[in-house]
Design brief:
GO terms for molecular function: ATP binding; ATP hydrolysis activity. With 342 residues, the protein is of the alpha/beta class. Helices cover 35% and strands 28% of the residues. The longest helix is centred in the middle third of the chain and has 18 residues. The site of adenosine-5'-triphosphate has 12 residues, from strand 1, strand 2 and helix 2.
């Protein structure tokens, strides 16, 4: 049995349709006109122990609502969730012992007390034995260097420091599963790298299963081997990043440096993305053309000094899926128009 089993999960929110006009403020107090908003429509997936799953989607797709149901904060309208055999919103106490949660936008720590005091409060709440607490604290001092700021109140920490403290706090009780909702949001490049290294390390060494939501595709590329793309409350894609690239990322870019300016470089099946002096970036569909075909055609008119083939960026594949859904047909028509050879 998988560690996380989600089946036909659905969440509807009732929203009041506001009354307008005379005394609307008062009349809205007794307003019983609702419309139903479907935040999560019908989601099913499974996560095996030790997996690191990226859960991504555009704003409003339903990611946070899903995470809130998986952590037991929200009760779904329909569907089922079993995590380590428990139903999160029914077995909240036992479930809380199994999970750690970090919301990048909101700290779980107490704002006005030093970080280490927050940790002590958590030690009491989770009934963490002394030896386990000290072992974990020392490891986090080592890996996250929290000793540099553990006596500082949370409100005085930088965002990167706060995220390190939140991550450490979420793991003090040795949870099996870690839910990370945008853990790198707003932090600088170096701090992001440090957080990613830590997440990878605890997944590798402790076998912690991680479900990560993020808008940063670098997080996904560097951390996850599997990703689920969600939009409008439904899963559009669930699979490996390599599969996503090979199924949907059939566009490659050939960067050619010529001896002269790329005059008359107008080849069927390619699209000029950029020109910079003697360099030109040509997009092509690798199912229809090969880099060597293009090279030969270019060599008929120019002397080639250098060339490289760039793989598709996961960022651009995901952007295309957000914009055009999963239809490969649409993407090909839009992105690789056939040009006439001059
Ligand atoms: N408590 C609520 N009441 C009414 N509608 C809600 C509530 N919470 C979320 N929604 C709506 O449900 C939809 C999904 O929201 P959700 O926060 O899950 O999206 P998200 O994928 O996490 O977006 P983002 O990337 O912007 O955080 C949105 O349209 C949102 O407005």
């Amino acid at each position: 049995m998988a560690l996380i089993e989600v089946q036909n999960l659905r969440k509807e929110f009732k929203r009041v349709i506001p009354k307008t006009g005379f005394l609307s403020g008062v009349r809205n107090l007794w307003n019983s006109n609702y419309h139903t908003h479907v935040a999560v429509d019908d989601i099913s997936f499974q996560v095996e122990e030790g997996e690191l799953l990226g859960y991504i989607g555009p704003n409003g797709a339903g990611k946070s609502t899903s995470i809130k149901m998986l952590t037991g904060i929200l009760v779904p309208t329909a569907g089922s969730v079993k995590i380590a055999g428990l139903t999160p919103w029914k077995n909240r106490r036992e479930h809380t012992q199994n999970i750690g949660v970090v919301f990048g936008q909101k700290t779980q720590l107490w704002w006005d007390i030093p970080v280490i005091e927050s940790f002590r409060v958590l030690k009491t709440i989770y009934k963490i034995p002394d030896d386990q607490y000290l072992r974990n604290l020392n490891q986090f001092r080592d890996l996250l260097e929290i000793d540099q700021f553990e006596n500082t109140p949370v409100r005085q920490l930088s965002l990167g420091q706060r995220m390190r403290a939140d991550l450490a706090a979420s793991l003090l009780h040795d949870p099996k599963i870690l839910f990370l909702d945008e853990p790198t949001i707003g932090v600088d490049v170096l701090a992001k790298e440090r957080l990613r290294t830590f997440i990878k390390e605890i997944n590798r060494t402790r076998g912690v299963t991680v479900l990560l939501t993020t808008h940063d595709m670098q997080d996904i590329e560097k951390l996850c081997n599997r990703m689920a793309i969600i939009d409008d409350g439904n899963i559009l894609y669930d699979g490996s990043i390599d599969d996503l690239k090979s199924k949907f990322g059939n566009e490659r870019t050939l960067v050619i440096e010529l001896d002269d300016a790329p005059y008359r470089l107008n080849l069927p099946g390619t699209r000029v993305l950029r020109e910079e002096g003697p360099r030109v970036w040509l997009a092509f569909n690798r199912d229809q053309l090969s880099a060597s075909d293009i090279m030969m055609r270019v060599a008929e008119h120019h002397t080639i000094r250098d060339l490289t083939v760039e793989e598709p960026e996961i960022e651009s594949i995901v952007r295309e899926i957000y914009e055009g859904g999963m239809s490969g047909q649409k993407k090909e028509e839009e992105h690789v128009p056939v040009l006439d050879l001059q």
